[in-house]
Design a protein that fits this description.
The complex is a heterodimer.
Chain A (H helix, E strand, L loop, with lengths): L9 H21 L2 H26 L7 H20 L15 H5 L15 H24 L5 H21 L1 H4 L10 E2 L2 E2 L3 H27 L1 H11 L1 H5 L5 H27 L9 H14 L4 H21 L4 H14 L4 H24 L15
Antiparallel strand pairs in A: 1-2
Helix pairs in contact in A: 1-8, 2-8, 2-9, 2-11, 2-12, 2-13, 3-5, 3-11, 5-11, 8-11, 9-11, 12-13, 12-14, 12-15, 13-15
Chain B lengths: L1 H4 L6 E10 L2 E11 L4 E5 L6 H9 L6 E6 L2 E2 L5 H6 L2 E4 L11 H8 L6 H5 L5 H13 L15 H15 L3 E5 L7 H14 L4 E5 L3 H7 L2 E6 L2 E6 L1 H5 L2 H8 L2
Parallel strand pairs in B: 3-8, 3-9, 6-7, 7-8
Antiparallel strand pairs in B: 1-2, 1-4, 4-5, 9-10
Helix pairs in contact in B: 4-6, 4-7, 6-7
Classes of the chains: A mainly alpha, B alpha/beta.
């Protein structure tokens, strides 16, 4: 289905090519496996940032609880991997062999009922999408149908993040508690820990990320994308144009939740464990900062934001661990005060015009100038 | 025609409508009826409850008691978007258009198709939509601004755009809240011309302070005062009503 004549405009196409070149070619060729695996970890947050662009950037719905959906997706994946790692053979020293080690430590003697379906990979893949999707649907319906929005909604999502963390930590026997689910080994018998597996998983993740970019871009270009923008500005006008504003908000929130969950599942695979420290308030806010730094109105901007902020986090906390949180706070203040559209805004204001000028002058030199000024270029 | 023999059906029948905000009755036991193809103007001093009446009809405010029947359907039980879908359009006092979208996109969103989540995902900008948008854009004097972002329009042009967004919905009842407020003299004349053209084949409910404008367009005038009807009838009758002169027109 073609809505506009082109799926990407010129600057978006350049963004797409640049990102694809970096992720598919440049990074795999230049980084060692350890660093590449770190990039894979950063990219799991790019999924969350992508969802936030739709939900927050376009729809104006600020969710400070994306860690919840990241966590739900991650835990679904980790439960499958943990069950596979807890075969009777691997766990024969336990008092109850064949159940995850943390259950055994907590005197649980049989696998709980809700764990049973996670023996199946097919079920797990559906669960990664459906569990967070349905959870977002319930929260979204409860909030948006009652016209709860803005800061109230943000605070409630934050509370949900806090509640889920407490629940996971408290139910140690069922969830692995504060330590999370560690020692994940194989996926259908294929070891996910060695270097070659890490490289394959990296590429799987990048392919998935581009699939999600495609979906997000498709949504952005449909009328639904424009309704999201319209809703952010004049909610009442949308309502009195005959639309149910709540349904559109629920849709945007659910899409953001599903993207975050895919990121979480890839986190469990690439990093090899899942813990409540990726679910709570602080990681949820960090995810919003990645999106804000990259540019909440730009799909590619937000992805760069997730990669660059996480890269800065790794390098800074390697050398000055105490300073990182201050740095992050300062970064957020800078974004809000100085460049509200993030890196992509800076790019669009300062870099893009120069590129356009270059193209325009080249075209003029080559004698192609048919009096049409390149889109966005200053008419000089 | 058969219909001519039937008892007259009102398009809009408001009866016993009351809304109270913390005990203050902004609209108090209000009843009035609007016929098909009638232009009704509501006038009254500030705080008389004019805008509240429109809010109640379009569902923005919920009535405390009373009923609003539109073509026999009870509006007080419906949600805003359902009321729009039964054929009631509302223009707000301050221009509310989507400033981050172009004039074309503003009008396209109001086109009555694909109003569900799935419908808007599969919505296609086909020839029918383009033709209708261009037709309306020409009516509202914005034909050469289709690709302009709405935040670059003047105040008057935004008002026209919002009127255009209602036109494209093709409502049976059009409600306009002070459509010429804040406009220049020339914009005012153009708006009067525009309104005279678009009010054909539909009923219109207008709130307006500009008496000359009211006289130009009104079939019937309802004067509100403290949430109740003070007087109702033709402009001529209302103008000579001593009660109206005292509270409103006198000063």
């Amino acid at each position: 289905m073609i809505i506009n004549s082109r799926f990407f405009n010129r600057s978006e196409l350049m963004g797409f090519i640049a990102l694809a070149a970096v992720l598919f070619v440049i990074l795999p060729l230049t980084l060692d496996v350890f660093r590449l695996n770190l990039v894979a970890k950063y990219l799991t947050y790019a999924f969350v940032a992508l969802g936030l662009v739709l939900c927050w950037g376009y729809g104006g719905i600020l969710s400070l609880g994306q860690g919840v959906f990241f966590g739900l997706g991650g835990y679904c994946m980790a439960m499958f991997l943990k069950l596979e790692a807890s075969s009777v053979e691997n766990t024969k020293i336990q008092s109850t062999p064949g159940i995850p080690d943390f259950m055994d430590w907590n005197q649980i003697t049989a696998l709980p009922l809700f764990w049973q379906p996670f023996h199946s990979l097919t079920f797990t893949i559906f669960a990664i999408i459906l569990v967070p999707g349905l959870f977002a649907l319930i929260i979204g319906t409860a909030m948006f149908k009652r016209r709860v929005g803005g800061t109230y909604f943000a605070i409630i999502t934050q509370a949900v993040a806090a509640i889920l963390t407490i629940l996971i930590v408290g139910q140690q026997g069922y969830t692995g508690g504060i330590n999370g689910m560690t020692d994940l080994r194989t996926l259908k018998g294929w070891d996910i820990r060695p270097d070659h597996a890490k490289i394959i998983l990296y590429f799987v993740e990048v392919v998935l990320l581009f699939a999600c970019i495609g979906i997000a871009q498709f949504i952005r270009l449909t009328k639904l994308g424009r309704i999201l923008v319209a809703m952010r500005e004049q909610e009442d006008r949308v309502r009195f144009s005959g639309y149910s504003v709540a349904n559109f908000k629920i849709f945007a929130f659910c899409m953001a939740a599903i993207f975050a969950a895919i990121g979480g599942a890839m986190f469990a695979l690439n990093v090899g464990f899942m813990s409540p420290s990726f679910v709570g308030i602080v990681p949820s806010i960090e995810m919003v900062i990645y999106t804000a730094v990259g540019g909440r109105m730009s799909i590619f901007g937000a992805i760069w934001g997730a990669i660059l902020v996480n890269f800065a986090k790794t390098s800074l906390s390697e050398s000055f661990p105490q300073l990182w949180l201050f740095g992050l706070g300062a970064l957020f203040i800078a974004v809000v005060l100085a460049f509200p559209n993030g890196l992509s805004g800076l790019w669009a204001d300062y870099v893009q015009p120069r590129i356009d000028q270059l193209f325009a002058s080249r075209r003029a030199k080559a004698g192609w100038n048919d009096n049409s000024v390149a889109d966005g270029a200053p008419a000089e | 025609m058969l219909i001519g023999h039937q008892p007259k059906e009102f398009l809009l029948a408001v009866s016993g409508l009351t809304v109270s905000f913390d005990g203050f009755k902004a609209v108090n036991d209000l009843s009035f009826y609007v016929e098909e193809n009638e232009i009704r103007v509501i006038i009254g001093p500030n705080g008389a409850g004019k805008t509240t009446v429109l809010d109640l009809i379009c569902g923005k405010t919920k009535a405390t008691s009373g009923s609003i029947q539109f073509r026999g359907k009870e509006l007080t039980k419906m949600r805003e978007n359902e009321i729009v879908q039964t054929g009631v359009g509302r223009k707000f006092q301050t221009p509310s258009v989507f400033e981050d979208l172009t004039v074309f996109e503003n009008l396209e969103i109001s086109f009555p198709r694909g109003r569900t989540v799935f419908g808007s995902l599969t919505f296609q900008r086909d020839q029918l939509v383009k033709d209708r948008v261009e037709e309306v854009a020409e009516m509202i004097f914005l034909k050469d601004k289709l690709n302009t972002y709405a935040d670059e329009l003047s105040h008057g042009q935004k008002q026209w755009l919002e009127i255009g967004m209602l036109l494209i919905q093709d409502p049976d009842l059009l409600m306009l809240d002070e459509p010429v407020a804040g406009m220049s003299v020339s914009e005012r004349a153009k708006t009067a011309e525009l309104l005279n053209r678009i009010i054909k084949n539909r009923s219109v409910l207008v709130i307006e302070h500009d008496m000359k404008f009211v006289e130009d367009i009104a079939h019937k005038v309802t004067v509100l005062h403290q949430g109740q009807i003070l007087s109702e009838g033709t402009m001529e009758k209302v103008k000579n009503d001593p009660k109206v002169v005292e509270v409103y027109l006198g000063h």
